[in-house]
Each structure stands twice: as structure tokens, then as C-alpha cells.
Amino acid sequence: MFAFSELAPWKLRGEAGTEEHGGVYTEIVRELARRVGRRLEIVDCPYKRCLRLMETGQADLAIGVIETRERDVYMKFLRTPHRSHSADRVFYVRAGDASRIRSYSDLYGLTIGVANGGVYFERFDSDARLTKEVAADNATNFQKLMLHRVDAVAIAEDQAAALRSEMHLESQLEPAQLHIPDLSTRSVAVSKRSKAMAMLPALEKAMHDMRSDGTLAALYDRHYYTRYGLNRRQVKVD
Prior knowledge:
Blueprint: E1 2-4, H1 24-35, E2 42-44, H2 47-56, E3 61-62, H3 69-72, E4 75-77, E5 89-94, E6 111-115, H4 122-126, E7 131-135, H5 138-146, E8 152-156, H6 157-166, E9 173-180, E10 189-191, H7 200-212, H8 215-228
Parallel strand pairs: 1-2, 6-7, 6-8
Antiparallel strand pairs: 3-10, 4-10, 5-8, 5-9
Pfam families: SBP_bac_3
Keywords: Signal
InterPro entries: Solute-binding_3/MltF_N
């Protein structure tokens, strides 16, 4: 069972009236399940609930979850990453305001939109002196930014590029000058309390093969770059 929490543009719920979940991360997990001979079942849950299901073993797989020491206790992350490049953390502002945030200290005194359950980078996540305003998702934060209800939005660069394109805000929003690099990779997680742990060697092989035979690159092309009109010079992910 795949613990699915919507994370645009990577994990998307189906259009109204359908039950089909999409997005490149969802397609990666579908292909992974197909290669190990299992039918994929999806449980749609809020992010924190999905983590709890992984902790208890009620869900088998998760994707789009950042590896931490706490999560390593109850999740095993595959050795072969589905992403070899993680996105910079950026702060989106209204067009013309990019120089407003040049260094970390410029964040103080601003109201910064963050997504519920979002993890950005350690200094920012633990900084109680910053004013952060939580919204349900990044689209809501972009709307609030347009309405001057927040001064900036903390977001991963790859998510922002797709979302800005989808919301047709290319001329109205831009990233501030401050970029925080993230050098970590991203891997599918298996619940250590799940029966899927018995399939770990098969899952490891399947993910390795998906990378080496070009399947991962093809999925990113179809479900990310082509869909949002982006290219690998703008955002590098796989």
C-alpha cells in the first residue's frame, strides 16, 4: 500500500470525478510495484497521517519524504535514489522584489508562507525568531503572496517552477536572490514494520533497473518537464 499525500507537482489527485492519482512520483511507485509483480493500492492521507501509517506498518511505501534520523528508525530508504539532484530551497516574492531577500538575515521581520508539514532546511525549520504562516499547500501560499497577505513563500525550486507555470504567474512572481542548496538525494521509503520489507531486494533491483534503463528519465520527461513546459537547464531532478 502506497501512502499518498498530495505534493504538487510530484503527487497529484485525479481530476474531479475520477479516482486516478497522478504526478511523476506516483508513476514511479506504480512502475516499481509493476516490476516486483504487485498491484498498487493507494491510501490518500494527510502528510502527517501518512507518516504515522508508515511508522505502524499499515502502509508499505512512501515517496517524497525527506530522510531524517527520526524517520530512519521506522523507514528504510532504497539505496538507488529516484532523484539524484534535490532542489534548492528558495523564497518566492512578487515580481520586482528579488533583491529584498539577499541573505538569511533579510528574512527577519517578514511574514513567510510555509506549507503544512513542509521541511525546508534545518536553520529555517528550527528558527523560532522567524514569522511563519502555515497554509494547506503551496498554491494557497502563492495566492496569499499575490494578495499581499505574506511577504514571501518558502518553497523548493522545482515545485515553484511547475506551480508558477500552472498558475500562469510567470510575470508576477519570482525567486528572491537567496538560494539554499540541498545536496541530498531522494529515495522511495519502505516501512520497516511492513511485509514489503521481505521484498526489499526486489525493490532495490527494480529501482536500480529503472534508473539504468532510462525509465526514470522518461517518466520525468513525460510527467514533469513536458507537462509544465520546463527543461533540464531550468531544473535538474533525475
